[in-house]
Amino acid sequence: MSAGTPPLPGPPKPQVKALNCPKCGAAITLRCFGQAETVVCGSCRCILDAKDPNLAILQQFEIKTSDVKPFIPLGTRGKLRGTDYEVIGFQRRHITVEGITYSWHEYLLFNPYKGFRYLTEYNGHWNDISICKQLPMLDSGFSTGGAANYLGEVYRHFQTSDANTDFVLGEFPWQVRVGEHAVVTDYVHPPRVLSSEKLDKEVTWSIGEYMYGREIWDSFKLPGSPPEAIGVYENQPSPVTTNVTSVWLAFAAFAIFLLALMAGFDLRAKKEPVLHETYTYNRADAKNEPSFVSDVFELSGRTSNVEVKTYAPVSNHWIYLNYALINQDTGQAWDFGREVSYYYGYDSDGSWTEGKQNDSVVIPSVPPGHYYLRIEPEADPSLPNISYTVDVIHDVPVFGIYAIAFVALLVPALLISLRAYTFERSRWSESDHPPVQLSAMTGSSEDDS
Amino acid sequence: MTQPAANCPNCGAKIVFRWSSSVQTVCEFCKSILVRTDVDLQKVGQVADLPPDSSPIQINTEGVYRNKAFVVVGRILYEYDQGGWNEWHVMMNDGASAWLSDAQNEYAVSWSSKAASLPAAAQVQVGQQFNWDNQRYTVTVITPAHYRGVEGELPFQYWGKNDVTFVDLRTETGKFATLDYSDSEPALYLGEFVEFEDLKLKNLRSFEGW
After folding, report:
1. Residue A34 in 3-state DSSP?
2. What pLDDT, in 10s, does the model give residues B164-179?
């Protein structure tokens, strides 16, 4: 700096101005130093010219509904993203869609160095909004009414509506009036929303990020608790924080892993047939000699499982076989009973079947040794005789556990997908591009019946 | 001292040019607008006291832009129907001159640029696009403004203006352009939006309560 610069008297330090409403005399504070264009008297609802030392009345508005009270009182300071801001202005705006009015609140925040920022609140949903420095790129070729690209991210068109200001409080750096309206278009990429606000000659783009009520309450140290958020807001982040695609990728990876395990165990299993016999059940004989034994067979190698398969050509009959797998060397026995039954017929719903002619059971952990089967058949009283085949296979792969693991993985993946889908559905049902209404479709079919 | 110096022809106060290429300055004491005729000064007008304004920047504010230190040496204050803004004339440490604009605390740095066949004010419309410097600029706002006053050193003579039309343009990459219709020939300024923090400003104004 030049050493010869004389000390400057310097402009006076900007101060908060206290004035009085020219209409009702109520105290008015100007908080944003020379930047306010209009200020609203909190008591008599006069919109005043903040640039005029006498605060000329620009507009006076009436509100029909009960008084609108900002959640964050004007003059409150809070820290937002590391910067102190003071609430200096508040407005209520509304849109009308299909005859229903939706109102939201906008809080104007000010910092003398960082400038202006906005908070919006609708049904307990908050957004932290600032003006875009970059110009978004519009892509009208998108199938659902257009999209915008901002800083490399695609924002989907959500809604275009005519926003009307119906209540203002505090000061604004622009000429605010009750009754003025702008065309507002929202594009969403949760948790962000990109909005364009179009007045006659000017298009302003802003970028907002979703905030939870409790974050606002913490920032501005507000008493009590924030109003509960109702419904799903356009850019509300999905509660399904996990990425659905990655869940399914993980599921696919596990499924492949399971298949590989199954294949490995299938290769390792010997699947050795050790007995294949066909016996005939005769009611007359069975009375004298209810049970008999099979030939002895050898289970060699390690302790492993044994599969016993039964086939009987029953039709609308049953047979029941009491089995015992007996170790000839030690006398150790495994008792089990199997029923083979197969029924079929017709009724009002058409043909039906029940049961099968095949049955299979796996006995786990059978030590090696010499074994035989003791079989005691019983049969349907209407069945005089029947042939049935018994197969014993040593060391078979068991896949049931894999099926359980598969389902155990599939269920959470499905639930996450369903939750994400339901949430996105609620989000977009409020947009200009609602998803096809399932209720409308089922509703019409109910009308038919 | 290497800076050109002279005395105010109106009040006799010492006038030192911080920037050797300054064409005009305002006497800090008597607010006379002085034009350099190297280095005798000629009083061409007088500015009324500038309206109270809320820019945190002031003459002598220092900062850094693109790794170059700069100091604020002058400004032009404009008003339009929705408020006002400041064009702060800054001197970079390499001697270049640039403008730091503060429009309701939205900051942009720009510098005088040349381009062939600039459009006339009446031809420009919002949404229209221009290509300068391999960038596609879109007209975002046309502002009829009026000159409100000057302070400090400026690279050209600028005083006694009335209504001026400004055309602001933006790009998808944060670049910024202004077409200035103060003179018969349109002037182009190209630059970019900057974050307040990134300028690392020192010697800012202080605000009561902040």
Report:
1. helix
2. 899 999 998 889 999 9
Name the minimum distance, in Å, from the CA of A236 to any CA of chain B.
Answer: 26
Whole domain around residue A67: which residue ranges?
Answer: 17-219
For residue B14, what is the nearest residue in chain A, using CA coordinates?
A6
Any domain includes A311: yes
Tens digit of pLDDT for each residue in B26-43? 888 888 888 877 667 777
Mean pLDDT of chain A: 86
Q: Could you tell me if residue A98 is left (phi over 0), alpha (psi between -120 and 50 degrees) or otherwise beta? A: left
pLDDT for position A11: 56
Q: Do A201 and B126 touch (CB under 8 A)?
A: yes
The reply to whether A103 touches chain B by the CB within 8 Å rule is: no
In a domain, A297, yes or no: yes
B96 interfacial to chain A (CB closer than 8 Å): no
Query: Quick check: A136 contacting B, CB < 8 Å?
Result: yes
Is B164 inside a domain boundary?
A: yes
Contacts of A131 (CB under 8 A, 6+ apart): A116, A204, A205, A206, A207, B106
ipTM > 0.90, yes or no: no
Q: How many domains does chain A have?
A: 2
Distance CA(A260)–CA(A410), nearest Å, equals: 17
**CB nearest to B105's CB, from A9, A16, A116:** A116
Contact A8 B60 (CB under 8 A): yes
Number of domains in chain B: 1
- Which of B51, B204, B209 is closest, CB to CB, to A34? B51
CA pair distance B84, A32, nearest whole angstrom:
13
The answer to whether residues A210 and A281 belong to one domain is no
Residue A448: pLDDT band (50, 70, 90) is: very low
The pLDDT, as a whole number, for residue A287 is 78
Same domain for A207 and A133: yes
